[in-house]
Each structure stands twice: as structure tokens, then as C-alpha cells.
Amino acid sequence: MYNVIIIDDEPLARSIVKECLQQHPQFKIAEECGNGFEGVKAIQQHNPDLIFLDVQMPKITGFEMLELLDQPPYIIFTTAFDEYAMQAFEANAVDYLLKPFSQERFDKAINKWMDMKSKSQQQLPQQLLQQAGKHPSHNERIVVKTGSRIKIIPLHEVHYLEAADDYVKIVTQEGSFLKKNTMGYYEDLLTPSQFIRTHRSYIINVQEITRIDPYEKENHIAILRSGAKVPVSRTGYPKLKALLGL
Q1: Is residue 40 helix, strand or coil?
Q2: Which of 64, 73, 149, 152 has the smallest set of CB atoms within 10 Å of its CB?
Q3: Per-residue confidence at 131, pLDDT binned at 50, 70, 90?
Q4: Do residues 54 and 61 make contact, with C-beta atoms less than 8 angstroms apart?
Q5: Are strands 202-205 and 195-199 parallel, antiparallel or unpaired?
Q6: Contact status, residue 94 vs residue 76, Cβ threshold 8 Å
Q7: Is pLDDT larger for residue 120 or for residue 85?
Q8: Are 163 and 189 a contacting pair, CB within 8 Å?
Q9: pLDDT tens per residue, range 80-115
Q10: Alpha-carbon distance 43 to 38, whole Å?
Q11: What is the CATH classification number for the domain harbouring 192?
């Protein structure tokens, strides 16, 4: 018996997946969730074999929900939007179901998952999360998990980002939050007119800069409104000057 979780904010969409699953008695529905917050908790509790995940949901998107999981399970995306379906496909999900879908199309996705599982093929979570950055919401906010709480940080509240081993530290007025990702990911994701990588370990919100001081040879220090001092490397300084029009 395989455990399944259905995550979709539309009750009708969840009921359609449930109806389709009736043709596959080897699956047991461990839980239904109406949003990504519930989804994270359910996945941690049940450790499912497979999840059916909507992309467009209130509060946090399906992609943002996946970013909060250390080890995402096998995923079949369900979506009404072609662009997100293609993202899911390119992200190496098991499959995607474009709403409305038929029993035949559903069965094909299940068979694909069974084949992947029998061959012990694993998804590539990092590819999946990198692809998630293409979702429009990621240009407006960063979703983090702190303890059992999920926090949505608007980008304008971010002072700077700092590399921290396998994580990135998101620094705000409230404090700092860790996100399992890379600096390169955020350098590509964040709006270049608002955020700039001034050092291999730092990305700054330029709106927070109050002044730039010389520091050791050809390096500099950016002083932020919070009083924080962020390194600006020899290669980062010309980029920062150009962006600020200095």
C-alpha cells in the first residue's frame, strides 16, 4: 500500500484526484490539504510515497511549499496553467496533469510513477527548486521555515543575503533566517536593479545602503541603514558604483 497526499485549494480538484485514485486500490490517501502550510505538516507527519500538488494556491504556491522540505517526495503536479505545467515537467517531477484531465491521462501518470519507483529513479530536488524560481511570486518574496512556523518575507524587507555553508542567511530587521539554497540561485532570481552581489558571500539590497567606505587595499565596506557592515570586493565595487550611478 502506498501513502498519498493531495494538496490543492479547490475541493472539486481534490475530489477528482480521489475519484481517479479509486481505480488504483494500492494507494491510500493519508491526508487532503487545502494549502501549502497544511501540506508541509502533512508531508512531515505521513512521509508519503507520492503527492499530488497544485501550483497556484493561496498563502504559498506549490513550488514555495517544496522549498520548505528537506527531502521532497515524488510529485505529480496538477495545474490549470500551461506555463506552470511546463515548469513542473522541466523540473523533473514525475509528471504533470493539466486540468481538467481524464482518467486515462491520470492512469498514465500513475504508471510513469510506478515505473520510476521500480527502477529506483529519484527526482532531482535541486533542479526542481531551481525551476521554482521562475514562478512570478519569487520576484516578490522569500518563504522560509523557522521551527514549526512558516514565514513570508517581502523582498523589500530583506537587508542582505549571506552565504552560510549549504544555506543562505536572509537578514531582515526582525533577524536572520536560513534558506537551503545557493547564492548563485538568488543572484539569478533577484531583481538586479534592487539587489547586487557585492562579494562572493553577500548580496545587498541597494535601498539599504547609506554609504560606502574604503577598507583594506582595493576593498570596501557598505554601511546599511541598520548599521550592518557588508563587504564589497574589488570586483563587486565597480558593479555597485554603476548601479548607484556613482
Answers
A1: helix
A2: 149
A3: low
A4: no
A5: antiparallel
A6: yes
A7: 120
A8: no
A9: 876 665 555 555 578 888 888 999 999 999 999 998
A10: 9
A11: 2.40.50.1020
Query: Grid coordinates in use for 14?
Result: 481534490
Range of the domain at 116: 2-132
* Sign of the alpha-carbon dihedral angle for 172, 178, 182, 188: negative
Q: Which three cell numbers stand for residue 110?
A: 500513475
Asked which of 98, 132, 166 is the last residue of a domain, the reply is 132
Name the pTM for this structure: 0.75
| 5-17 per-position pLDDT tens digit | 999 999 999 999 9
Tell me the residue ranges of DSSP E strands in the chain.
2-7, 27-33, 50-54, 74-79, 95-98, 141-146, 149-154, 158-164, 167-172, 175-179, 195-199, 202-205, 209-214, 220-224, 229-232
Residues forming a β-bridge with 164: 167
